[in-house]
Amino acid sequence: VSFGWGHALALTVDGKLFGWGYYADGRIGNMGNDRLESSPLDSAATVFSNNKQLTSSDLEVAEKKVLRGMEEESNMPIIWEPRLVEELRNVKVVDIACGLDHSLVLCRDGVLLSCGSNVYGQLGRTREDLGFFPVDINYTPVSVAAGVGHSLAICELDESDDSDTVGATNIASWGWNQSSQLGRSGPANLPALIDTLDGENPVSVSAGRAHSIALTSKGEMWVWGSGKNGRLGLSSSVDEVEPFYLDSLEGFQILQAVSGFDHNL
């Protein structure tokens, strides 16, 4: 199960995808929509995308905006119970990730789909139609993660990628990059590999609001993006523009690492 801001996706053991929650902007595909609509929840996105230290009062303001919007919109487009995503009924899904107002769905055949808001380029595709459509990615994704406005995918590399190791992996990133949470420079609206992680073979990746973390096959942690509140674990609040090895965990064989909004575990 993956949760976004107002929507959720659930993946069953047999590869079926269910969605529920707020759907007007297409964040759970084409459910009940025939055109792309703007979201009254976008006011909350403005609060979250502002890379300042959020206080409890900031969060209360965002929550009040959402509640007020729900009260004012008696016909607000909400799916109240999990519902099968019909457009993917005949597709086997293997991984899912929900961002603030976008979603990523990885299919068994290696096709990566995206839907929802594309204001930061987080859908990773030039096609703007409502619903699930393929990300413009030139690599083979094996798992995905989504932050507030950025997307990450662990990708298998082949011989054409100049990899020295069979089964080597790297991370492709795209979307919002205000705090360097993509871990690379260059165009942000389409997927591109993070050069710093070449040869590190990441096996899992997780995205926070404005930072990212990755775990490698050697059990090592790499962090990048916003350093506010010490979320990168580097004893500072400095942003890291590229992945940085978290040497404070050296000697530990890390099994799992996940990001929260502004923290990690």
UniProtKB/TrEMBL annotation:
RCC repeat residues: 15-109, 110-157, 169-218, 219-265
One Pfam family from the record: WD40_RLD
Record keywords, A-Z: Repeat
Top-level taxon in the UniProt lineage: Eukaryota
Span of domain RCC1-like: 1-264
PANTHER family named in the record: REGULATOR OF CHROMOSOME CONDENSATION, REGULATOR OF CHROMOSOME CONDENSATION (CELL CYCLE REGULATORY PROTEIN)-RELATED
Protein name according to UniProt: Putative E3 ubiquitin-protein ligase HERC2-like
Organism: Trifolium medium
Organism classification: Eukaryota, Viridiplantae, Streptophyta, Embryophyta, Tracheophyta
